[in-house]
């Protein structure tokens, strides 16, 4: 029993109990964003690449899923597949361009490419422009389970989240993940050890994009809506905030961060414009004084107090 | 008179708008490049500070009765001082850390500034009258040239080349270039580097605010005017590379013109053309047109 096992058990229990305590749609929203943030953290936390364009994957997967389910009339699992594969392909294109530059340029390139996707989404006829796609049917999973039932949908979303999270966790613990960490810590050394750094970065980027796409496609099914909000650069900033607040480079941090940010937006809806200001303030405070994030700080406290979990 | 089936007035009109946009790209990317050179920070708040410059000019006119000419001098000073305050209280603490934290901090600042202005002024925007001296225009025979637009282009060119001259040809500029290369060594020669960093950030911010004042009579003054612009400017910076001051200026103006031409010949692509060019440049010359790998 180590910290990770305890984390998994707590996560499972919370996932099973939460919809009976809180409004299930809110929990589904949190799960989608948690998966999104975990996928993002694979890049920032474990590879050291700051992507400022992850909204492009979330949003375009949402549109693809919506089109597959609504426009083509296919089943929801194929919608998720289309969204994930589409986001992975987009991730491959973004990644191939962005990894040509390092550090700060990488962030600017991903941001600019995501803005390109935003303008395309605004202009393409099938996305519905400013209105977005509305009334997307949830359909029947594998033709059997009716997803328009909230509880059925909830447990489907929980399963998707756990699947995505498991993949990320496996990736981090695998030899592949070790190479990513080596790149984060010291790229020239990783190169001198003979690793094809660019290929590893690209693979991490595609994996992260695909899982962000999975999150976006799932979100579309939950809300039966795909809109420009999800491709806007504000969304790319939000996922950075979730990860930073929860703890960059911690396994469970992004989940905590997503929970805090989504709850804040939900219960703070009456704050209106102040939400943007508050988001900015949290950013500034996190960068100046709270760089480890919630999970990072808690882990440090446990370590200092000498408790071995 | 037509060129490729496009009336020459329309073509020239769009080219002029392109040139004006290009002037703003040039001033803003110049500011970003100067700040990045010394601070190693990409100032995400640049767009918000540009917007703040435009709003300060509007506030000065409507609340305090200060005219355009006063704003042109006073606003960059005030917003520049605000920038120096940011540098002294926040950015200063980040120089030892990964450069990405500077980007994240200034992103947060941009959200705060934009959010505050949206709270106070809404998103509909305010209009700023063209100063009397510059209203009207010249009839050049083949097109009508509004005086104010000619003025914006002229001022931008003077500011850009003035900055280039200061940085590349004066003693002060040589300190700046030395600081970009090796700040520790420069400090060892007795130059007050922290003060220089503060002033440099203030100067970059003042440039953004000046662009804001220039933009106020051309565009609607609204709280989101900066955030839409800054992402394009980032693409401009990636295309040009931040290694050279002249590179930033030329790239900014050139891309503005290309955007204007696209608006004439293929309007659907005008919003994305700069991003597409960025992709092509990254494929062919990853360091940027004027950049060097660092």
From TrEMBL, chain A:
Q: How does it sit in the membrane?
A: Multi-pass membrane protein
Q: Where does it live in the cell?
A: Cell membrane
Pfam families found in the cross-reference section:
BPD_transp_2
The answer to keyword Oxidoreductase applying to this record is no
InterPro entries, per the entry: ABC_transp_permease (IPR001851), LivM-like (IPR043428)
Q: What is this protein called?
A: Branched-chain amino acid ABC transporter permease
Q: Does the keyword Cell membrane apply?
A: yes
Q: Which organism is it from?
A: Aromatoleum toluolicum
> What keywords are assigned to this protein?
Cell membrane, Membrane, Transmembrane, Transmembrane helix
User: Chief location of this protein?
Assistant: membrane
- Chain segments annotated as transmembrane: 6-26, 33-58, 78-97, 104-124, 151-168, 202-227, 239-264, 271-290
From TrEMBL, chain B:
Highest classification ranks of the organism: Bacteria, Pseudomonadati, Pseudomonadota, Betaproteobacteria, Rhodocyclales
Q: Subcellular localization, per the record?
A: Cell membrane
User: Which residue spans traverse the membrane?
Assistant: 12-35, 41-61, 68-87, 99-117, 148-167, 195-219, 231-258, 264-284
The family line of this record is: Belongs to the binding-protein-dependent transport system permease family. LivHM subfamily.
Q: What is this protein called?
A: Branched-chain amino acid ABC transporter permease
User: How does the entry describe its membrane topology?
Assistant: Multi-pass membrane protein
Write down the Pfam families for this protein, in alphabetical order: BPD_transp_2
- For the keyword Coiled coil, the answer is no
> From which source organism is this entry?
Aromatoleum toluolicum
Keywords recorded for this protein, A-Z: Amino-acid transport, Cell membrane, Membrane, Transmembrane, Transmembrane helix, Transport
Instruction: Extract the signal peptide range.
Output: none
């Amino acid at each position: 029993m180590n910290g990770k096992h305890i984390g998994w058990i707590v996560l499972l229990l919370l996932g099973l109990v939460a919809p009976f305590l809180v409004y299930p749609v809110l929990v589904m929203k949190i799960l989608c964003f948690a998966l999104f943030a975990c996928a993002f953290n694979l890049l920032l936390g474990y590879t050291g690449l700051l992507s400022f364009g992850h909204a492009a994957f979330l949003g375009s997967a949402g549109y693809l899923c919506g089109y597959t389910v609504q426009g083509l009339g296919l089943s929801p699992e194929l919608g998720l597949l289309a969204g994930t594969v589409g986001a992975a392909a987009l991730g491959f294109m973004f990644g191939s361009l962005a990894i040509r530059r390092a550090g700060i340029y990488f962030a600017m390139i991903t941001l600019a490419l995501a803005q390109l996707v935003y303008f395309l989404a605004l202009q393409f006829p099938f996305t519905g422009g400013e209105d977005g796609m509305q009334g997307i049917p949830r359909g029947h999973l594998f033709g059997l389970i009716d997803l328009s039932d909230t509880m059925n949908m909830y447990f489907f979303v929980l399963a998707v989240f756990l699947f995505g999270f498991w993949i990320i966790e496996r990736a981090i613990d695998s030899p592949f993940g070790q190479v990513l960490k080596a790149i984060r810590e010291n790229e020239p050394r990783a190169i001198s050890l003979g690793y094809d750094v660019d290929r590893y970065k690209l693979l991490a980027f595609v994996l992260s994009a695909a899982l962000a796409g999975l999150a976006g496609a799932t979100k579309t099914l939950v809300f039966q809506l795909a809109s420009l909000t999800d491709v806007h650069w504000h969304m790319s900033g939000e996922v950075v905030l979730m990860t930073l607040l929860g703890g960059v480079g911690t396994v469970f941090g992004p989940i905590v961060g997503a929970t805090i940010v989504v709850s804040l937006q939900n219960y703070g809806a009456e704050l209106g414009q102040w939400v943007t200001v508050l988001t900015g303030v949290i950013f500034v405070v996190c960068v100046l004084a709270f760089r480890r994030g919630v999970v990072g700080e808690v882990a440090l406290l446990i370590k200092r107090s000498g408790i071995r979990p | 008179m037509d060129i490729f089936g496009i009336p020459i007035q329309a073509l020239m009109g769009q080219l002029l708008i392109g040139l004006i946009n290009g002037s703003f790209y040039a001033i803003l990317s110049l500011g970003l490049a100067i700040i990045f050179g010394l601070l190693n920070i990409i100032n995400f708040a640049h767009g918000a500070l540009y917007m703040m410059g435009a709003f300060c000019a509007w506030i000065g006119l409507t609340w305090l009765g200060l005219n355009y000419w006063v704003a042109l001098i006073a606003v960059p000073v005030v917003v520049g001082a605000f920038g120096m305050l940011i540098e002294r209280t926040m950015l200063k603490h980040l120089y030892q850390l990964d450069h990405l934290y500077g980007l994240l901090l200034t992103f947060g600042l941009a959200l705060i500034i934009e959010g505050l202005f949206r709270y106070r002024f809404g998103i509909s925007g305010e209009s700023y009258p063209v100063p009397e001296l510059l209203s009207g225009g010249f009839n050049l025979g083949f097109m009508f040239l509004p005086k104010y637009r000619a003025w914006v282009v002229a001022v931008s060119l003077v500011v850009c080349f003035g900055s280039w001259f200061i940085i590349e040809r004066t003693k002060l500029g040589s300190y700046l270039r030395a600081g970009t290369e090796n700040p520790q060594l420069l400090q060892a020669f007795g130059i007050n580097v922290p003060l220089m960093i503060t002033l440099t950030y203030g100067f970059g911010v003042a440039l953004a605010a000046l662009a804001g004042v220039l933009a106020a009579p051309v565009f609607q003054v609204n709280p989101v005017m900066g955030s839409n612009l800054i992402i394009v400017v980032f693409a401009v910076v990636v295309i040009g590379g931040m290694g050279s001051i002249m590179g930033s200026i030329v790239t900014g103006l050139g891309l503005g013109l290309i955007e204007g031409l696209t608006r004439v010949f293929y309007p659907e692509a005008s919003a994305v053309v700069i991003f597409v060019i960025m992709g092509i440049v990254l494929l062919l010359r990853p360091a940027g047109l004027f950049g060097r790998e660092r």
